[in-house]
Write a structure and sequence with these properties.
By secondary structure, the chain is α+β, with helices and mostly antiparallel strands. It is built from 15 helices and 17 strands. It folds into 3 domains: 116 residues, PAS domain (Beta-Lactamase), CATH 3.30.450.20; 125 residues, Beta-Lactamase, CATH 3.30.450; 201 residues, 2-Layer Sandwich (Heat Shock Protein 90).
Length: 464
């Protein structure tokens, strides 16, 4: 039969244990060959307490000696264990566990120490690699500018939620600290808009049923009242207690949502403007060719009016259709028609909303065309003065505008009202809800407009 000593030796060999014994009375330290190998020593190398200390990694010596002395000096202290690194003479570094027992006599005095050491380099390497990976992943999650990584555990009955992990972006995205959310998940879930919660619950249920991730967009109302949109993408897995753990990411999509809303608004506005523009073009065509064939004169009138409309649109486009300055509007409408030095403008600059700007541009074009063909600009010396005043009155502004021609051929009232006359008289009146008077005085045409502009029409401000 195998003896007790032989069985013990085989067990020590199988476990890869190195054995040592330290005599506190003589200072002798005995190591077996396996333990010497852990420290990079040859089987016949001499050993001492000093050589042991020298073989411990410098960064670990204080903790190793402290653990040993604590057990040695503690009354009744017997067992101790410590993980540390060894450094062989050739520089090789290993991780080991040293476990020992203090031997004491009947008085409790310590006279020796026996123990074992074993190599845990592979395990520690894996642990350190895992810890480093976790640190890098945590750093990645904490540094994401518009996203938060999270893990949340849900009880088997679905009644309780508890966050297991939250990246630091939690406070940046939601105005809630990581500590507060870890202590009470409802602090964070309570920010979700009530009307969006059913969508999240439905997405979670479907993800569990299909064993797949969900992707849902919900709103969070922060404590300061700010509403932010978040995209939640999360995948479920079964926990040991039969509940569910969700591994997910919260992405702030507030700006994307705002841009989508802005694009929709612009698209709707564009559709509205296109319809209005087509209606204007249809009206211009009908009036330009009313009672006439497509004569060169009729085509010229039509093209001139289209160019005036296009110029107004070009000006508004440069201003992102947020409005137009009145002086810029008059330049666009009248510069192609007015001879140099024969147009005088007087009045404060101010901004108009797009619809009002188009109406005024078309009216100025008709007045300018008439002056160029029949009025002050058709002669060599006539001129036009455009004078206006704008007086803010609370949320409105009083606009007084006068177009006055002088120095042209004698004027007589036309026998019939053409499109231009109707555009000036009726178009301006319809737009501003006020009278627009067109007078054919002998010494020149006079057009006077008196209107209250609402804040929406003149943007409540003078132009810069």
């Amino acid at each position: 039969m195998i003896g007790e000593a032989e069985r013990l030796s085989e067990a020590v060999d199988a476990a890869g244990l190195g054995l040592w014994r330290y005599d506190l009375r003589t200072g002798a330290l005995d190591w077996d060959a396996r333990l010497k190998a852990l420290y990079g020593l040859s089987p016949d190398a001499p050993t001492s307490f000093e050589s042991f200390v020298a073989g411990v990694h410098p960064d670990d010596r204080a903790s190793v000696l402290g653990e040993f002395e604590s057990a040695l000096n503690r009354p009744g202290g017997r067992d101790f264990s410590v993980e540390h690194r060894t450094v062989a003479p050739d520089g090789t570094v290993r991780w080991v566990v040293g476990a020992g027992r203090i031997l004491r006599d009947e008085t409790g005095a310590a006279y020796g120490v026996v123990g074992t050491s074993w190599d845990i380099t592979a395990r520690k390497t894996a642990e350190l690699a895992l810890a480093d990976s976790e640190r890098r992943l945590r750093a990645l999650g904490d540094n994401l500018p518009f996203a938060m990584l999270y893990q949340v555990a849900v009880s088997p009955d679905g009644a309780r939620r508890r966050f297991l992990h939250l990246s630091h972006a939690c406070e940046r995205l939601n105005g809630v600290s990581v500590e507060a959310a870890l202590a009470d998940a409802d602090v964070l879930y309570g920010l979700i808009e009530p009307e969006d919660l059913p969508r999240l619950v439905e997405a979670e249920a479907e993800a569990i049923r299909a064993r797949s991730a969900f992707d849902v967009e919900v709103r969070f109302r922060l404590k300061d009242g700010t509403v932010r949109w978040s995209r939640l993408v999360s995948a479920p897995r079964r926990s040991e207690d039969g509940g569910t753990v969700w591994d997910g990411v919260q992405i702030d999509i507030t700006e994307r949502r705002r841009e989508q809303a802005r694009r929709k608004l612009l698209t709707d506005e564009l559709n509205h403007r296109v319809k209005n523009t087509l209606a204007i073009v249809q009206s211009i065509a009908a009036q330009s060719f009313a009672g006439d064939a497509a004569t060169p004169e009729a085509r010229a009138r039509f093209e001139g009016r289209l160019m005036a409309l296009a110029s107004a649109h070009a000006l508004l486009t440069r201003e992102n259709w947020e409005g137009a300055a009145f002086r810029a509007l008059t330049d666009e409408a009248l510069a192609p028609l007015a001879p140099p030095g024969r147009l005088s403008l007087s009045g404060p600059d101010f901004r108009l909303d797009p619809r009002t700007a188009v109406t005024l541009a078309m009216a100025l074009h008709e007045l300018g065309t008439n002056a160029a063909k029949y009025g002050a600009w058709s002669s060599g010396s006539g001129d036009v003065r455009l004078v206006w005043t704008l007086v803010p009155e609370g949320e409105t502004a009083r606009l007084e505008l006068v177009w006055r021609e002088r120095g042209g051929p004698p004027v007589t009232a036309p026998e019939r009202r053409g499109f231009g006359t109707r555009m000036v008289e009726r178009g301006l009146a319809a737009e501003f809800g006020a009278g627009a008077t067109l007078l054919f005085e002998p010494d020149g045409v006079v057009c006077a407009l008196s209107a209250n502009l609402p804040a929406s029409a003149w943007n409540g401000q003078a132009a810069a």
